[in-house]
């Protein structure tokens, strides 16, 4: 497992300059408009999408065919993609948090001495990891099924679907007179780790089922 994760990290280092440049560009676009919170979310999602690049490298090198003749289980290979996705999400929130705080403090949108702003940013960082991991894990089964190039065209639909479902649920609740009060938001926040865990388990099972039937 460790070797599989290191493989993806070493491969992705070749694209780090382009990724860091893109994140710096978004720094100047996002900070003046949305502050550190918006930048953290942006970094998390952009970094999570690097998992697609790892699949592209694997396809170009025909890695999966080679891996099947090595003492590597298909379960470990699939699981490693979810682990590396989590690593990318964590890198995104740390990178976004550090630069977001610095940039927002310079323009006066973040006050270092404000405890409430630190608490809010921490909550945003946790939400950024959860959202980016949720969306990234949705793409992984598509990558195993269709490959990196075809999956890229389906990513937008995959991202829009949960957003539309959440919006539909929100307006449905409003039509029944159910408002998202602080207590409801707190409840959703408390159960979100369990939902994310169940979602990840489902995406892993789907991905493993697809990869298990693949022939090389």
From TrEMBL:
It holds the Pfam family ABC2_membrane_5. Keywords: Membrane, Transmembrane, Transmembrane helix. It comes from the Bacteria. Signal peptide: none annotated. InterPro entries: ABC2_memb-like (IPR025699). The chain crosses the membrane at residues 12-31, 37-57, 78-101, 121-144, 156-173, 185-204. PANTHER family: MEMBRANE PROTEIN, MEMBRANE PROTEIN-RELATED. This is ABC-2 transporter permease. The lineage of its organism: Bacteria, Bacillati, Bacillota, Clostridia, Lachnospirales.
């Amino acid at each position: 497992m460790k070797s599989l994760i290191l493989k993806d990290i070493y491969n992705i280092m070749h694209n780090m300059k382009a990724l860091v440049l893109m994140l710096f560009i978004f720094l100047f676009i996002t900070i003046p408009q949305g502050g550190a919170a918006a930048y953290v979310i942006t970094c998390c999602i952009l970094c999570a999408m690097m998992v697609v690049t790892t699949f592209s490298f694997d396809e170009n090198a025909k890695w999966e065919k080679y891996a099947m003749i090595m003492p590597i289980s298909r379960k470990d290979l699939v699981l490693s993609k979810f682990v590396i996705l989590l690593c990318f999400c964590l890198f995104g929130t740390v990178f976004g948090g550090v630069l977001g705080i610095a940039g927002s403090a310079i323009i006066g949108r973040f006050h270092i001495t404000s405890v409430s702003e630190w608490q809010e940013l921490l909550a945003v960082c946790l939400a950024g990891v959860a959202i980016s991991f949720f969306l990234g894990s949705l793409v992984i089964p598509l990558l195993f099924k269709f490959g990196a190039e075809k999956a890229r065209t389906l990513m937008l639909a995959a991202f829009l679907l949960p957003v539309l479902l959440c919006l539909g649920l929100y307006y449905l609740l409003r039509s029944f007179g159910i408002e998202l009060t602080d207590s409801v938001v707190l409840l959703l926040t408390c159960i979100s780790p369990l939902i994310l865990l169940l979602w990840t388990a489902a995406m892993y099972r789907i991905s493993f089922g697809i990869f298990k039937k693949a022939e090389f």
